[in-house]
């Protein structure tokens, strides 16, 4: 089954509280990252801002988040401003995505402060899309009003399921009724696109129960829908409990869901994502098309001029680095030619319509591509490479074919 399409783009990994990394700990020096941003680069630029606060960890969550740390919000907002001053992309971002964590855990006043800080940091930016993640239990009319005034154009509402027993089993802090209330409030506020997230393969979730919940979700009339197969990672509460999802059942759920969602008028445009025409996530499309992006906040990732970097995930380390006037980098690397080609293939194949391979991709991965076509996992369609239906469900296996061996990564 497929997993979150953006998790590797956010760099959501945990690290322990260590001193702010010195330059010798990084593959690419801080000065080179700044110089890379000053290059004359064309194409869209995305801005991702990570808000790591939440009310509690869900059973499947391994994103960087800090329950019960609300007292640190003010320090974090100040740190975001300090980090933004150290980043010089050389041009204004066109899309903004505020994720977490649970950004809607912030108070209405704190949300206003966050957007004020971003306006100060990027005064000339004219975002064509601004997404803000919200959870049903922590969004209300007051916060929605602040988000509207802040220029948010797209809400991402994390339902995950509409079955109270399933929600309780994975540690969600809302009920199905809360979800319906939150969606109604968001629709009433009006003027934006609403995306909903659901997961299949959760504990206690049957095929019929999942599809019944999906039918209720579709009745709401969302503009965008993300459907993820449960992806368990070591260290999460569900993984420690010994729970193992039934992959065959999960695939059956997803296959049935894909047909039902498309029949409801939402086009399948990316492995996990469906949208009404014009409501595709522009920010995420920039990722999947190999575009550049800046990440601010704990564990946020950036990609500029061939240099990929990730921030430290520990909150105090993040603060320490910025107090010292240093970018809070945990790691960075300049991608080799074959690595760039491999990433272009992996990301481009996430799109249902596929991608047109560059001469480098075609040359460097010719035998891999032919092998995947012979196994009916890829097909060629009007000059583009696309995942087949089977390839969609075995996407991780397909993508591994485009990861270059270590000895080739410096080519």
Mind explaining what this structure looks like?
It is a single chain. With 411 residues, the protein is of the alpha/beta class. The protein has helices at 7-10, 30-37, 73-86, 108-121, 141-149, 164-169, 176-189, 207-220, 237-240, 247-263, 282-288, 315-323, 337-348, 359-364, 366-374, 389-393, 395-400; strands spanning 45-51, 53-54, 66-67, 95-100, 129-134, 154-160, 193-200, 224-229, 267-270, 273-275, 292-296, 301-304, 307-311, 329-334, 378-381, 384-387. The chain has 2 domains: 7-288, Alpha-Beta Horseshoe (pyruvate-formate lyase- activating enzyme), CATH 3.80.30.20; 337-402, Arc Repressor Mutant, subunit A, CATH 1.10.10. It contains 17 helices and 16 strands. The protein has a 9-stranded mixed sheet, with helices on both faces. The protein has a 3-stranded antiparallel sheet with strand order 12-13-14. Helix 3 (73-86) packs across helix 12, helix 4 (108-121) packs parallel to helix 5 and helix 8 (207-220) packs parallel to helix 10 (247-263). The protein starts with 6 loop residues before the first helix and ends in an 11-residue tail after the last helix.
Describe the secondary-structure layout.
Blueprint: H1 7-10, H2 30-37, E1 45-51, E2 53-54, E3 66-67, H3 73-86, E4 95-100, H4 108-121, E5 129-134, H5 141-149, E6 154-160, H6 164-169, H7 176-189, E7 193-200, H8 207-220, E8 224-229, H9 237-240, H10 247-263, E9 267-270, E10 273-275, H11 282-288, E11 292-296, E12 301-304, E13 307-311, H12 315-323, E14 329-334, H13 337-348, H14 359-364, H15 366-374, E15 378-381, E16 384-387, H16 389-393, H17 395-400
Parallel strand pairs: 1-4, 1-11, 2-3, 4-5, 5-6, 6-7, 7-8
Antiparallel strand pairs: 8-10, 9-10, 12-13, 13-14, 15-16
Helix pairs in contact: 3-4, 3-12, 4-5, 8-10
């Amino acid at each position: 089954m497929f997993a979150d399409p953006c998790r590797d783009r956010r760099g959501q990994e945990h690290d322990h509280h260590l001193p702010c990394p010195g330059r010798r700990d990084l593959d690419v020096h801080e000065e080179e990252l700044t110089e890379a941003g000053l290059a004359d680069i064309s194409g869209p630029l995305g801005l991702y801002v990570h808000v790591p606060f939440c009310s509690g960890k869900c059973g499947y969550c391994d994103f960087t988040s800090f329950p019960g740390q609300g007292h640190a919000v003010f320090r974090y907002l100040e740190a975001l401003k300090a980090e933004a001053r150290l980043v010089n992309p050389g041009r204004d971002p066109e899309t903004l995505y505020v994720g977490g964590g649970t950004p809607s855990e912030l108070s209405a006043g704190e949300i206003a402060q966050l957007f004020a800080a971003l306006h100060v940091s990027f005064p000339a930016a004219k975002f064509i899309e601004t997404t803000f993640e919200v959870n049903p239990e922590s969004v209300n009319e007051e916060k929605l009003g602040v988000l509207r005034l802040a220029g948010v154009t797209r809400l991402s509402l994390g339902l995950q399921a509409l079955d109270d027993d399933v929600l309780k089993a994975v540690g969600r802090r809302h009920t199905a009724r809360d979800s319906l209330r939150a969606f109604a409030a968001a629709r009433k506020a009006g003027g934006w696109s609403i995306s909903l997230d659901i997961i299949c393969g959760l504990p206690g979730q049957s095929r019929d129960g999942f599809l019944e919940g999906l039918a209720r979700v579709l009745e709401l009339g969302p503009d965008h829908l993300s459907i993820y197969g449960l992806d368990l990672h070591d260290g999460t509460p569900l993984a420690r409990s010994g729970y193992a999802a039934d992959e065959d059942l999960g695939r059956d759920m997803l296959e049935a869901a894909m047909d039902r969602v498309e029949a409801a008028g939402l086009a399948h445009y990316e492995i996990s994502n469906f949208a009404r025409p014009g409501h595709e996530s522009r920010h995420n499309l920039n990722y999947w098309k190999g575009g550049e992006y800046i990440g601010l906040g704990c564990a946020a990732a950036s990609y500029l001029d061939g240099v990929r970097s990730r921030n430290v995930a520990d909150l105090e380390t993040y603060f320490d680095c910025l107090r010292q006037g240093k970018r809070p980098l945990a790691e960075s690397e300049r991608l080799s030619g074959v690595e760039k080609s491999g990433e272009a293939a992996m990301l481009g194949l996430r799109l249902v319509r596929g991608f047109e391979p560059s001469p480098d991709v075609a040359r460097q991965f010719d035998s891999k591509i032919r092998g995947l076509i012979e196994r009916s996992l890829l097909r060629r369609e009007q000059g583009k490479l696309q995942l087949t239906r089977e390839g969609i469900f075995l996407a991780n296996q397909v993508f591994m074919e485009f990861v270059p061996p270590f000895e080739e990564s410096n080519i």
